[in-house]
Amino acid sequence: MKKLYTLLMTLLAIPAFAQDRIWLDNGNPVQAKLSRAMDSKLEWIASDGIPRIYHRKRFLVIFGSAGQFMVISELNESPNKAQTQIEAFYKAPPRNVSQDIIIKSVPLTVITGNISYESDEVINYLTMEGNAASINKEEVATVIYRDGRHEILRDVVDVAPLLALAHKEIEKKEREIVRKETDKTPNQPVAKKDVPPPPKEQTKPVLTDSEYKEYSAKGIRRVDEFTSYLRIIGDKSLKSEEKNKAVQQALSLFEPQATVAVSSPKGVKKYPVKEYLNRLKLLPYSKINITWNEVKYVSELKQEADGNYYGIIAGQQVFEGYSANGKVAYGDITRKNIRVKLESYQKTIDGKDTVNWEVLLGNIGVETNEGQ
Fold first, then answer.
1. Which of 141, 237, 292, 305 makes a 20 to 30 Å CA pair with 112?
2. Where is this region: Disordered (predicted)?
């Protein structure tokens, strides 16, 4: 099984040479550049020089020849502002970093180091302190090499949101690398004009009382939505297309790096949400029924340092797996908790920026389990 998984990851891992590339929603990269932003579409020009226009949803992430990248979800909805972002992206100074960047998927982590050895299964590297380290490629989402090349090791549809979440941390790490390299160089004081000004303190958006109640209730509804998708995914009488659509709809409710804890006689194991949902499709039952009872907040939504609100919803999950004769073949009752994140984002309407909030589910944990 492990060999099969490794082979699959090898096929998914598509190394890209140090050149401008666009990753599309079909999972393929093309050697091309974005050229123009429109209302809901983007124009791009491939190596044949022919302009093409696709809907924005077709594009996932673009990489520059020096390894810099931009996730399309980061583009402003306003065509004029998006055009400015695109032009700034391609006019930015060349990225000059002496370390490789490794993005671990779960938990989402940005690792820097000099890769010394790489196989289909493992990456060995030296940290900036000179210590030897290693990471299994099954844990890696993306590698951005110091020479500008990059490699996507998982489904790019899943990797693009991770890159968006990790973008600021990657840029921070790269600045640290440059600063440390500069500090090592004797008699090379940094000119005052090169020192970036201190960041301006930004005011965090705060929920009103009515918004707080509205979004708290929406967190509970997210759990109900997730439960309804689970029943569809586990129903053997439905077509694969319906179940696959339910998987994608369920994934849209979660943070990209979220995991689901599953209890068994051997203990508790955590799976990325997508893997958990795909495993659910393979359970040996003709139908499953999953319900949540006593669903409530055990930790109310509270704003934290990053400006987002976080809380914990707990409930009693009842699982029933039915055999072909319609009788329950297996059932259990599990006390579970779900981390809820309320994330702010700006949306431009009629040229005016407004603050909106998105409710996302995070890690699902196990509290107790009572077998039936």
1. 305
2. 176-209
Which tokens in the block code for residue 18?
């140090």
* pLDDT tens-digit series, residues 109-131: 999 999 988 888 889 988 888 88
Using alpha carbons only, what angle is made at residue 326 by residues 321 and 327, rounded to the nearest 5 degrees?
65
Q: Quick check: 3 pLDDT over 80?
A: no
Helix, strand, coil % (nearest 5) of the chain? 30, 40, 30
| Among 303, 292, 335, 301, CA closest to 217 | 301
CATH of segment(s) 18-93: 2.30.30
pLDDT digits (tens, 9 = 90+) for 212-245: 899 999 999 999 999 999 989 988 888 989 989 9
* Model pTM above 0.70: no
Say which DSSP state 325 is in.
T
Question: What is d(CA 152, CA 68) in angstroms, rounded to the nearest whole number?
Answer: 14
Architecture of the domain made up of 95-179: Roll (2.30)
Q: Select from 302, 298, 308, 307 the least CA-distant residue to 338.
A: 298
Question: What's the distance, Cα to Cα, between the start and end of the chain in Å?
Answer: 31
